[in-house]
User: Which sequence fits this backbone?
């Protein structure tokens, strides 16, 4: 009996059967390099470009008025800038058809600037009230104080910290093995940094909806990691008592066995998010939903990547630093070398030097055997 390689099948066949044909863990240095580059780009975006905070966080003035005819956001920006002396932070549309409105977010405006902006917007776009008559009163201004913005920012940070503390406690209890807990937390950190980096590079506003979306996708990422690690735990149970496969190979098999499930879950999660961005934001004109849709789309994709290509390879790298895993891996490789050298497989014990000598039979079993 000799060890032979598994037959090579088509890509889809190997993907659906999950037979361990994709060497994900075996190429962990490649994935670590790619992950490092992604994190570096995200951090550069956060440092260089920073975040565009909505007025809910930093305070300011919100201007809203109904649209009369086809108006481009650049036209609204030009008119508002000439009236108040500085450009608005963002100009978005909400609603569609007769209910479509423009939402302008700007720094705090004084009474003179509000009056000038109202007159300029009315003269340029003639917004109409509910009765259909053109009226300056249809242009509404609402202020968000910097104190209120600071409170919202504080609450958002507290919510994020509490979530991370709860997740850390859950991971510590769920994965009683320190390597799994550390790998899961590192994967979660990766998801947060990359999602924040994408937001910084794109320049979308960070609003309360963004924070809610971030907490949602962190939960999704944790769920995906737990699914993969559950399979890893199942596969590596008792791995030290046999020299047929290494810990890394068993972990790689677990990733392959859950790969199709992760892909299906991601596709199912991405479709409604794309619907949110395409139908709600683009077709219906609800521009305020772009920030929520983007954070969920990026988070789902990044969470799937980290659970497959980062969390499990990192787990294996941490485990292979322990003496017992190193010794076991060496014994597995030594056994294979003897088999490749032509020694009969039956003469190469599967449990050699791993579990020690076989236990002696009990007294009752010995008497039964003598009979």
Assistant:
């Amino acid at each position: 009996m000799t060890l032979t390689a598994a037959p090579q099948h088509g890509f889809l066949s190997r993907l659906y059967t999950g037979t361990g044909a994709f060497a994900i863990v075996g190429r962990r240095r490649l994935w670590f390099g790619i992950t490092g580059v992604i994190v570096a780009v995200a951090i550069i975006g956060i440092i260089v470009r920073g975040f565009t905070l909505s007025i809910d966080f930093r305070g300011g003035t919100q201007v809203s008025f109904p649209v009369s005819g086809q108006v481009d956001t650049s036209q609204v920006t030009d008119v508002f800038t000439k009236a108040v002396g500085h450009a608005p932070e963002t100009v978005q549309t909400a609603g569609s058809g007769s209910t479509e409105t423009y939402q302008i977010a700007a720094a705090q405006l004084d009474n003179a600037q509000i009056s000038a902006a109202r007159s300029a917007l009315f003269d340029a776009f003639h917004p109409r009230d509910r009765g259909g008559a053109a009226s300056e009163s249809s242009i509404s201004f609402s202020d968000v104080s910097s104190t209120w913005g600071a409170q919202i920012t504080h609450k958002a940070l507290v919510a994020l910290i509490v979530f991370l503390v709860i997740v850390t406690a859950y991971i510590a209890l769920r994965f009683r093995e320190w390597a799994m807990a550390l790998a899961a937390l590192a994967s979660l950190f990766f998801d947060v940094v990359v999602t924040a980096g994408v937001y910084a590079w794109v320049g979308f506003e960070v609003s309360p909806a963004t924070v809610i979306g971030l907490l949602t996708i962190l939960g999704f990422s944790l769920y995906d990691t737990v699914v993969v690690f559950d399979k890893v735990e199942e596969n590596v149970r008792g791995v030290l008592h046999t020299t047929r496969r290494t810990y890394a190979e068993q972990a790689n098999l677990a990733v392959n066995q859950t790969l199709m499930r992760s892909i299906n879950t991601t596709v199912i999660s991405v479709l409604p998010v794309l619907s949110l961005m395409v139908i709600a934001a683009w077709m219906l004109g609800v521009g305020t939903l772009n920030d929520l849709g983007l954070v969920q789309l990026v988070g789902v994709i990044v969470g799937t990547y980290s659970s497959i290509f980062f969390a499990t390879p990192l787990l294996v790298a941490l485990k292979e630093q322990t003496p017992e895993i190193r010794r076991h891996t060496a014994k597995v490789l030594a056994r294979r070398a003897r088999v490749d050298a032509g020694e009969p497989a039956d003469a190469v014990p599967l449990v050699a030097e791993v579990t020690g000598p076989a236990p002696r039979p009990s007294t009752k079993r010995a008497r039964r055997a003598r009979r």
